[in-house]
Amino acid sequence: MGKRPLYFEIFTTALGSLLLEIAYTRIFSFKVFYYFTYLVLGMGLLGIGAGGIAVATSERLRRMPVERLIALAAFAGGASVLVGFLVISPLQMNIAEALTAPLEIGKLVLIMLLLTSSFFCVGLIVSAILSARPEAASRLYAADLIGAALGCTLSVPLVYWLTPPRTVLLAGFILALGGLRCARASRPLLAVGVGVATVLAIPALIPGLLPDPVVANSKQFEDYRREKLVRFSQWSPVFRVDVMDHPFKLGNEFVLFHDGQPGAGMVRFTPDYAHFKYLDRDARLLPFRVLPAGPRVLIIGAAGGQEIAASLYFGASHVTAVELNPVSYSLLRNEFADITGRLAEHPKVTHINGDGRWFLKQTNEQYDLIWFPAPDSYAAMNASSAGAFVLSESYLYTVEMIRQSLAHLTPRGIVCTQFGEFSHDSRPNRTTRYLATARAAFADEGTPDFARHALVASTEGLGALKESAILLGKDTFTDAEVARFTEHAQRSVNEGAVRYAPGMPANDSPITQAILVPDRDLERWHTHQPYAVHAIRDDAPFFWHFARFSDAIEAPLPVDGKMIDPEDAIAEQVTLAFLVLATLFAGCFLLVPLFTIRKVWKELPHKAAALAYFAALGLGFMFLEVALIQKLTLLLGYPTYALSVTLCGLLVFSGIGSLLSSRYSAERNRALYAVLAVLCVVVIASQAALPRLIDAFVGSALPLRVAVALLVLAPVGLCLGAFMPIGLRSVASSTPHAREYVAWAWAVNGFFSVIASILATILAMVFGFRVLMLVALGIYVLGVVSFARLPAGSATSHA
After folding, report:
1. CA-to-CA distance for 132 and 741, rounded, in angstroms?
2. What is the predicted pLDDT for the residue at 413?
3. What is the pLDDT of residue 378?
4. Which residue has the higher pLDDT, 470 or 156?
5. Residue 303: left (phi > 0), alpha (psi -120 to 50), or beta?
6. Fewer C-beta within 10 Å: the chain N or C terminus?
7. Strand 349-353 relative to strand 367-372: parallel, antiparallel, unpaired?
8. For 91, which DSSP code?
């Protein structure tokens, strides 16, 4: 067989696999919870690595002509995508029993196997191509990365245009398409491929043919769907929005579901405010009773317009309402504009689609009230998690964000933040953490006596979640303001609503203690709290991470389908469980098969050095990728932009780095050390430069901000892209078993990438993203130093 270039095949395979991965992260955020993103990413990497091991260990696969293997794997991959979606979509999870009940564990294992099977075919193709063409490793690896980069770029518009379920099927079609050219020598095989591609293309391109995914029973979504209360549904890269008829009204005409969970209300707005008398006994009135008449209001998280209407009802002179999700933004301006009384077009309202942090960075306006109205919905957390492993929504609650908000207040202005709490008495974690963070922000501002700048009240709320309202004054609250707050909280909200006000006697409540504990005792007080409620900053913006991982290991698992308290270690337990399961799966799929090639395995030289090197590439790349996505979210102002721009930039520049590696790898070790040195300088310099770049450009037009982000990513990607092809060429030239060695190296990289996809978030939650980037550099250093001891041999002969 001639050496036909296989750039198209590896390009389409990478394109399809990235589309599949990102589309499934959106589906699982809707079906279950945001942390299932880790599962998708981990199983994707696992499948790709397992495919590499299969090529290395199966004599039948090694003997098969590479083009036939590519065609078979491509068609099998496309078919597995269809089967996988049709099984996963209607499968309902019971989250309360996900870690204990055999049936639910079985569902989880089934999902993992189905996801792995599709990516296993991807791994077969990529590994077969790289091991069959080691002399073209640089160009092939570049094509792989560029295809993946295009997948990242296209994923955002495709989620809008096709929805995630149809994007999954489109990804399967692209996988099958990649095998058609290789199947031309066999008419039966070609006919199978055309059939698979056609079956995938039809539901991908024609709306309404695919079933809507079934949502976990704990999210309430299916209850509303069974009652036929759904009025509107639309997917978004941020989160899916469903508008439901409100079953009880209670001042709201509709309920907005965010990724399958109730997230906000939507009202009918009329100029006579006939529907809003209920607000006179609502916690929303508190900041307006403290402020003078006619305040200028900024709302971060406008959602269905409930707080816009409330602000107008309470006499705001102007309301600026910022909403992250373009679908939610569109509801008030298009689909539900008439029903909501064209609230977004009210002469006193400015309605903006964007991230709240970005908006404050780029405006010079001053406000009397900056309002974060109950922004704690777990659906909002799901939304942010679509942008790669972390909860970027938490940037709304960091020390830096509070300082930024204070800078945009008038001299007597107020920041008002509302949270839901499962228990104000036993563990008011959200309120306590926010107060601890606010206290740190005021300390950084050099403002003394934080206790005179805070007011806290609570309401009974509805259902399991109770509500708290936290008021932070730019200046100290006067006695008259405190008296008005106390009066209206007790009279209009409920008796005993005031949780803290200056002058109140101290008590043992965490809310009060977070404000009043002396500075000298504060760190010790936090250490002895049963939950982690310390202040959070941009470097580790995990507001919702209340259970320490050490406590999560010891905490009892939920049983008998009981209602889960999301703060009582369940998210941490699931994350740790995913890490364990991913490691076990990876070990079974990637390491156990090596026993089948024990003879060849023994003949592979310098396995320890190669293991350290390719493991370092898997860990280090993922650690840097996660940290850079998170850090660039602030610059790009939108989690989805951060995901697509950062991944696309890293992959494109890594592809270019791969292409260039063949030019400067004549002396392998010198090239490795040179690239490593540049990477260290670039990463360390970015730690200092990024905050300044963000401050300088965050208010600029989006194209300029994207250009700045790509400028930051370019040198990192150019360095990262060089390591893999240099390593693959080196191990391939060191043994007659080049195909097995390359496939094994690819599998090792996949194994540690699986672990890194989850471990990166755990490390960031504990130590922060700055430390995560430095750890990544240390891993690269260890890998390169170890690999440098491997004799270069004829590694450059094929460069």
Report:
1. 11
2. 97
3. 42
4. 470
5. left
6. N
7. unpaired
8. P
Helix or strand run (H / E) with residue 559: none
Nearest CA to 111 out of 581, 570, 618 is that of 581
Q: Which amino acid would we find at residue 133?
A: R
Could you give phi then psi for residue 421, rounded to 5 degrees? -130, 140
Radius of gyration of the chain (CA): 27
* Vertex 129 angle, CA 126 and 131, to 5°: 105
The residue type of 110 is: L
Residues found in the chain: 799
Q: Give the strands of the sheet with 254-258, arranged side by side.
A: 230-234, 241-245, 254-258, 261-266
SS3 322: strand
- CB 747, CB 593: distance < 8 Å: no
Give the model confidence (pLDDT) of 628-640 as tens digits: 888 887 788 666 6
Extract the tokens encoding 71. 């065609």
The Cα 730–Cα 668 span in angstroms is: 8
* Full DSSP string of 658-682: HHHHTTS-SSHHHHHHHHHHHHHHH
- Is the pLDDT assigned to residue 361 strictly greater than 50? yes
Is the distance from CB of 169 to CB of 23 less than 8 angstroms? no
CA atoms of 281 and 211, how far apart (whole Å): 43
Query: In angstroms, rounded to a whole number, what is the distance separating the alpha carbons of residues 577 and 581?
Result: 6
In 554-672 the beta strands, taken as DSSP E runs, fall at none
Counting Cβ atoms within 10 Å, is residue 658 exposed (0-12), middle (13-18) or buried (19+)?
buried
Report how far apart, in Å, the C-alpha atoms of 264 and of each of 194, 252, 254, 261, 488 are: 46, 9, 9, 9, 24
Only one residue has tokens 């403002």, namely: 447
In eight-state DSSP terms, residue 303 is T
pTM value is 0.85
Listed residue (113, 109, 125) closest to 51, CA to CA: 125
Element (H, E) at 497: none
- Residue identified by tokens 């860990």 is 619
- Residue 148, both tokens: 């993946």
The dihedrals phi and psi of 257, each to the nearest 5 degrees, come to -95, 130
Q: Do residues 239 and 386 touch, judged by C-beta distance below 8 A?
A: yes
Per-residue burial over 76-87, b if 16 or more Cβ lie within 10 Å, else e, is bbbbbbbebbee
Q: How many helices (H) and strands (E) does the chain have?
A: 27, 12
- Closest among 13, 254, 267, 7 to 123, alpha carbons compared: 13
The span from the CA of 774 to the CA of 346, in Å, is 50
pLDDT at position 387, please? 28
